[in-house]
Amino acid sequence: MDQFFSTFLDWEYIWQVFPDLLKTGLLNTLILAFTSAVIGTVLGMVVAVMGLSTKAWLRWPARVYTDIFRGLPAILTILVIGQGLGTLARDVVGTNPYPLGILALSLIAAAYIGEIFRAGIQSVEKGQLEASRALGMSYSKAMLLVVIPQGVRRVLPALVNQFISLVKDSSLVYFLGLLSEQRELFRIGQDLAANTGNLSPLVAAGFVYLVITVPLTHLVNYIDKKLRTGRKVRADEPDEGDPVEIGPGGRVSAW
C-alpha cells in the first residue's frame, strides 16, 4: 500500500508540481481547446449550411469533408497536419507546432460541429421556414434569422459536449513536440513522470482535467433539462396573448 501511494499519490510531489500544471499546463490546455472551439464552430456552421444546400457543388464537398475528418483518428489528423504542413508552412509558423495543433483540432471539431448544427437545423419544423417566406423573407434571410437560431438553441448540450472532447483531445498535440512554455496538462505530467518514474504528476494532471470536464458535464445535463422542460411560468404571470395593463410603478398585471 505504501508503494501504491508513493507511486501514484505522493502528495508532497503533487504539491510541488501543481503550480506548473496550473500556470502553464492549464493555460495552454484552455487556449488550445477554446481557440479550436471558436474556429471549429465558425467552420462547422459553414459546413452545415453547405451540407443543407440544394446545390450539389456545395453539398458534396461538405459531405466529403465531414466523412474524412470524422472517419480518421484524431491523432492521425494531428500528425499529418502538424508534421506534413509543418514543412510547407515553415515560412509562416517557423518551427512552432502550436498553430498547427490548433488548426488540426479546429478542422476535427468543425466536422463534428457541422453535423451537430445540421441536425439541429433539420429538427426545426418546416412550417417555420414556410411562414417566414410567406411574410416576404428571402430563403437566406429566413434561414439566418428564424431557422438557424432555433436549431442552434436545440443543440447547445451537444456543443458543450464537443468542447469537453476538445479539452481532452488537446493532449494529443503533445505528439507534435511543443516548446517548454507551450506544454499542456498531459505533456507536463508525462514529462515529470518520465523524469522521476513517479506517476503522481500524471494523476495530478488527470485531476485538473476532471475539474474542467465534470462541471461542464453537469452543465450539459442542466441545459438539456431546461430545454426539455421549458421555462416554468408563475401562477400570477399572464399567459401569452392575455390583455395586460400597466399599473403604478410600471407593474404589469393581467386583466
Describe the structure in your own words:
This protein is mainly alpha-helical and 255 residues long. It is built from 11 helices and 2 strands. A hairpin with a 5-residue loop joins strand 1 (244-246) and strand 2 (252-254). The longest helix has 41 residues, at 11-51.
Which descriptors apply to this entry?
mainly alpha, two-stranded antiparallel ribbon, 255 residues, single chain, 75% helix, MetI-like fold
Secondary structure layout plus pairing:
Blueprint: H1 2-8, H2 11-51, H3 56-71, H4 74-88, H5 90-93, H6 98-123, H7 126-134, H8 139-154, H9 156-169, H10 185-196, H11 200-229, E1 244-246, E2 252-254
Antiparallel strand pairs: 1-2
Domain ABC transmembrane type-1: 26-220
Region (Disordered): 232-255
Family: Belongs to the binding-protein-dependent transport system permease family. HisMQ subfamily.
Short summary of the structure?
The protein has helices spanning 2-8, 11-51, 56-71, 74-88, 90-93, 98-123, 126-134, 139-154, 156-169, 185-196, 200-229; strands spanning 244-246, 252-254. With 255 residues, it is mainly alpha-helical. The chain has one domain: Orthogonal Bundle (MetI-like fold), CATH 1.10.3720.
Find the CATH superfamily: MetI-like
Could you give the order of the helices and strands?
Answer: HHHHHHHHHHHEE
Largest sheet: 2 strands, antiparallel
How do the strands line up in the largest sheet? 1-2
**Low-confidence runs of at least 5 consecutive residues:** 237-255
Globular, elongated, flat, extended or rod-shaped: what is the shape? globular
Region (Disordered): 232-255
Main location: membrane
Subcellular location: Cell membrane
Domain ABC transmembrane type-1: 26-220
